[in-house]
Amino acid sequence: MDLKSAFGCHTTPFTREVRLEDLYGLSVFDQARDGILRAIEKRSSAALIAPAGSGKSTVLRAILGRLPEARYVTHYVKCSEIGKRDMCREIARVASVPSASSFPALLHNLQEKFESTLVDAGRRPVLLLDEGHELRPDVLAMLRVVTNFQMDSRLVLSLVLAGQPDLGKLLARDNQDAIARRIVHYASLRALSRDETAQYVEHRISVAGARHCPFDATALDAIYEIGRGNLRATDNLALESLELAAAAKLKVVGAQHVTAARKTLWPA
Ligand SMILES: Nc1ncnc2c1ncn2[C@@H]1O[C@H](COP(=O)(O)OP(=O)(O)O)[C@@H](O)[C@H]1O
Ligand SMILES: [Mg+2]
Predict the structure, then answer these.
(1) Which of 23-32, 80-89, 108-117, 153-162 is predicted least confidently?
(2) What is the CATH number of domain 27-187?
(3) Reported pTM
(4) Which of 50, 77, 178, 224 could disulfide-pair with 197, CB 3.0 to 4.6 Å?
(5) 63-73 b/e with 16+ CB inside 10 Å = b?
(6) 37-67, pLDDT tens digit by residue?
(7) 158 pairs with which residues across the strands?
(8) Which CATH number fits the domain 3-18+192-265, given the four candidates 1.10.8.60, 3.20.20.70, 3.40.50.1820, 1.10.565.10?
(9) Separation of 194 CA from ligand 2 center, angstroms?
């Protein structure tokens, strides 16, 4: 199954690594991105809370692409993979202080730096924390101290916490605490509508090089009925059905391929 000869694709369509210039533009993504950028601009923190596969990590990438290196030290971290030691290292890196392997050592380095220099002199630290719903309790406790107002007013660290709805619960529980108080902006994302889903599929196949959209109207409809406008489900269904059609040496993807793709992807 060669998607190149079958559909003219120069790259595999519907993968995660869509280039920033190839993103499907929709106001809901732009609003989330711009709202968070404004919060960072104001030296505050922000949260992006939405279900799995709705485009959060991609919004974070778009934010990274818009923070000029001359003004910001940014770092992207997946909370699912990170313990206390790693988080210390990441905070040290964005705050441009010597790396520290323990939390007390990190606090010492941060304090030392901000007692000796003017806050406004350097580039501003922005830490983007993805998979925030998987923040470990001890790491969350660390962030609490670092975003504590007295500490943070000198550090001016902006946190962007992205995660699934459980992150909202985690922060709500944390309501009286430093982190939730520093979050001035909450952004969210929604599933695509039927029309948007069809346009999204057409867009993604065209940026992969296809000159014509191989999905017929019944296929686009089936993708929406099964995937319900979730980007990840849409990607998986579209790629799998495309490969099934290519394997059958067909140039057009129909609803039957999408139904078959569902069975392969999510066996009952
Ligand atoms: N604006 C967009 N344009 C094109 N593709 C997108 C866009 N946003 C997300 N995607 C695609 O949708 C999939 C899911 O997005 P992702 O950001 O990983 O979601 P989440 O982090 O919420 O689970 C990814 O494979 C990504 O390539
Ligand atoms: Mg993600």
Answers:
(1) 108-117
(2) 3.40.50.300
(3) 0.93
(4) 224
(5) bbeebeeeebb
(6) 999 999 899 999 999 999 999 999 999 999 9
(7) 126
(8) 1.10.8.60
(9) 22
